[in-house]
Write a structure and sequence with these properties.
eight-stranded mixed beta sheet; alpha/beta; 350 residues; Rossmann fold; globular
Length: 350
């Protein structure tokens, strides 16, 4: 098996405003399991960067450890990249961002990487409002170590070995909203139509932009009884806006009033729950977002879409009052102003 993509591409592939075709934003061939939801997320990242006309060398992708943290190898091969140790991606992203704030920082993590060993770093990246996109590919299990339940596995869900999870789950979207994240969204890896615009919005957001993506593990957590399986998610999705279906067969349409829910049968016989938010929904209101997420959870539904956004947030550089010039571009004269300046600094600390 090779991980190198074939060089041949159709000569008539459309190009963006920079003159790049979409293959310029791709990476190596995935070595993840066939059908893994993480690959769909990688494809959405590629599509979002292509549509936003991003110059790949102006983006830095960072990750920790896990199946999800392998994915930066599968997109934006012409970008900067750093694979850190388990749960430590946020601190690496913080250091890189402070050194050069001109780059777009794109962090990829998993539910084990962020909700367990990296929980502390995840929370502090939020409270510092680090200017970055932070995607969690959430499958509710540890895929690299044979499918044990992770901290986001829902209480009472059954893993592949047949064991029921006795612990309460950590809801990363609710946590991000409560901790003060300035952009919080949730989506499903199989809904590229929703996920691509969310990623584009996150890249354009000034501040910490968090996207929790339910991404079923086809090998260890796609069984009957798992709340992170494809069937369960498709049957319990509640979207923050109306979804249009345009499959290869006859188009599926539906009509319902604001504030109501509608169950729609898909071509494969499965059902998806739609919910049209009523007119008092306000994505700029943190309390409204928290209530929407909690209400959906009480109904065993997964709320997807943009949950909360703060348009005028203050990022880490503004909080620390750093200079406009990226630190990695400062000269020795600016970094070492001399003994007299050091004397004045020491006087101010007495």
């Amino acid at each position: 098996m090779t991980y190198i993509r074939p060089k041949f591409r159709h000569p008539e592939l459309p190009k963006n405003k920079l003159g790049y075709s979409i293959n310029y934003y791709e990476g190596a061939l995935s070595t993840l399991c066939a059908g893994c939801g993480h690959d769909s997320i990688s494809a959405s990242v590629v599509q979002a960067a292509f549509e936003l006309n991003i110059e790949p060398h102006k983006l830095a992708k960072l990750s920790g450890i896990g199946c999800s943290s392998k994915t930066p190898a599968y997109f934006l091969s012409n970008s900067h990249g750093f694979n850190s140790v388990h749960g430590r991606m946020p601190s690496v992203a913080t250091g890189a961002n402070l050194a050069n704030k001109d780059l777009i920082y794109f962090g990829v993590s998993g539910d084990g990487d962020s909700a367990s060993i990296g929980m502390g770093q995840f929370i502090h990246a939020i409270r510092r409002n680090l200017n970055m996109v932070y995607i969690v590919m959430n499958n509710g299990c540890y895929g690299l170590t044979k499918g044990q339940d992770s901290a986001t596995a829902d209480h009472g869900s059954k893993n592949k070995s047949g064991h029921l999870n006795v612990y309460e789950s950590i809801d990363l979207a609710s946590l991000a909203i409560e901790m003060g994240a300035s952009f919080v969204a949730q989506s499903f890896s199989g809904d590229k139509k929703q996920l691509v615009p969310l990623i584009k919005s996150a890249m354009n957001h000034h501040g910490f932009a968090f996207i929790n993506v339910i991404s079923p593990c086809v090998t260890f957590n796609n069984n009957l009884g798992s709340t992170k399986s494809y069937d369960y998610v498709r049957q319990h999705v509640e979207a923050t806006s109306t979804i249009d279906f345009v499959p290869e067969m006859t188009e599926i349409t539906t009509s319902y009033s604001e504030g109501d829910s509608q169950q729609v049968k898909m071509h494969d016989g499965s059902y998806i729950n739609l919910h049209k938010l009523d007119t008092n929904w306000n994505p700029l209101d943190r309390h409204s977002a928290m209530n929407a997420v909690l209400n959906a959870k009480l109904k065993n539904e997964i709320l997807t879409g943009l949950l909360y956004i703060e348009n005028d947030s203050t990022d880490l550089h503004q909080l620390l009052e750093t200079v406009d010039t990226p630190l990695n571009k400062l000269t020795e004269l600016e970094l070492c102003p001399g003994a007299d300046a050091l004397v004045d600094i020491n006087k101010g600390l007495r």
